[in-house]
Amino acid sequence: MQPPPPDTPRTPVDARNPDMSEIVGSHDLLLVTLDTLRHDVAVELAAAGRIPHLARHLPGGVWEKRHAPGSFTYASHQAIFAGFLPTPAGQGPHPRLFAARFAGSESTASGTFVFDTPDLLSGLADVGYRTVCIGGVGFFNKQAPLGSVLPGMFQESHWEPEFGVASPTSFEAQVARAEEVVAGLPEEQRLFLFVNVSALHQPNWFHRPGATREAGDSRDTHAAALEYVDAHIGRLFAAASSRRRCFAIVCSDHGTAYGDDGYTGHRLGHESVWTVPYAHFFLEPGAIAP
């Protein structure tokens, strides 16, 4: 039997308890935030077979129920980029995948990747990663100082109007840019690729055939937007794993309300906002896009 290639550490295929101290430095990393995706909609579509390309990677075919670190995009991503991913919905403390070195931290464990910088992105850059952001919603559009804060944390960032919430083909355009980014990297360069998917965010009515602007967005058009993302996410997974094994995290940053208990939207404290779907898993080298 031949020994494993140097890019492959002694980590199991089962990603339930990954040792990030071994994965960081040997794997490429992919973080996808499905901006505004509701947990209940994600669970229903996976169970009904309506998101097959995502579901095939979910452990056991199901999403994990977690709590968002914020109720809207900016707050949640500031926390995520500091290492505070959505938290498992049971009582903790829960070991984290990434954490800044901090005395007394109860969620830093033996398998946590610990960094000595203010945020995960600079921590990964310090150990040789190229950090790349492909933005989606307005907090990533770089059109004003506030929209430049989050993408400014990366070594390289991309945003075009075609990536934004008003584009019916936003995710296809984002995936195409991701493919270009990966193709342009030297083989030996480790990559942390972040994609903020805008398609779930309002407006999303145009993803449901027959829906109208006048009728507006609904839980049903939100579900249709997730089906649209699923149809193209295989290409993103294939690109992310085209050079070596990739560790992927796919989650929502927060949910949104569609009339739940009289609430609409997010940046509010409701179950539909705080509860989010989450998964992490390995993508094997040379994964074939559907």
TrEMBL record:
- Domain named Sulfatase N-terminal: which ranges? 29-272
Would you say which domain of life the source belongs to? Bacteria
Signal sequence bounds: none
This protein's name: Membrane protein
